[in-house]
Design goal:
By secondary structure, the chain is mainly beta. The protein has two helices and 16 strands. The strands form two sheets. Strands 1, 2, 3, 4, 5, 6, 7, 8, 9, 10, 13, 14, 15 and 16 form a 14-stranded mixed β-sheet that branches. A two-stranded antiparallel ribbon has the order 11-12. The longest helix is centred in the middle third of the chain and has 11 residues. It is globular, with a radius of gyration of 16 Å. 41% of the residues are buried.
């Protein structure tokens, strides 16, 4: 197994209400799951291939709970990536060189039966974890916006999920997201669960500080 590691800033937006039951072993509150994810890789490598500074986006859809499988996924990789970097990133995203179910990538890959061909495209993605804001644009493919949750008076609400024993993050800031997946998967949702996190993963799972 080729060892890999990545540190990235992430926003993920699914169609669940704020909180997302799936974070706590529950079932998606809309019956099925659909989500858009953006990653800004601050530092990373797969073997001797450096993937730092690249961006990734993806769209996912499952007809029911994720653990029941039958998912569909489309990955978009930064057009600046070299052939070696593309191979490295796609290996990580599809659960390769990873302990079984050790990362969110490995879990999602295991629960997906339709993988659309990856596309290497310009990715415009900016995210502020602590500010709970983000903007993702992949022209003609996916778009996502993240903002803080606000109360009825318009004041920002700050909430976190601190999850021990997970496979994606230790602490996530929770906000509100709106996404549209255009091609090759088509769906849209708005004002739903938005997750902002610093993730630090490797071949064995979360790298703890």
């Amino acid at each position: 197994m080729t060892y890999w590691m990545l540190k990235a800033r992430e926003m993920a937006n699914c169609n669940c209400d704020y909180g997302c039951n799936c974070q706590f072993g529950g079932l998606p509150d809309k019956g099925g799951c659909q989500a858009v994810v953006g990653l800004d890789i601050e530092q990373g490598y797969h073997g001797d291939v450096d993937i730092s500074g690249l961006k990734v986006a993806a769209a996912f859809r499952w007809p029911g709970p994720i653990h029941e499988g039958h998912g569909e996924a489309a990955a978009f990789v930064d057009e600046r990536a070299t052939e070696a970097q593309r191979h490295a990133i796609l290996t990580i995203l599809t659960g390769g060189d990873t302990d079984p179910f050790a990362t969110v990538f490995a879990v999602f890959a295991a629960m997906t039966e339709t993988f659309h061909a990856p596309q290497f495209v310009p990715i415009d993605f900016e995210v502020d974890i602590e500010g709970r804001t983000a903007r993702l644009r992949v022209d003609g493919k996916v778009e996502m916006d993240g903002v803080p949750i606000r109360n009825i008076g318009g004041k920002e609400i700050r909430a976190q999920i601190h999850l021990e024993g997970g496979f994606e993050y230790e602490v996530a800031e929770i906000g509100s997201g709106t996404s549209r997946s255009i091609s090759p998967i088509e769906f849209a949702h708005s004002n739903s669960y938005g997750q902002f996190a610093h993730i630090h993963l490797d071949s064995h799972g979360i790298v703890h500080a």
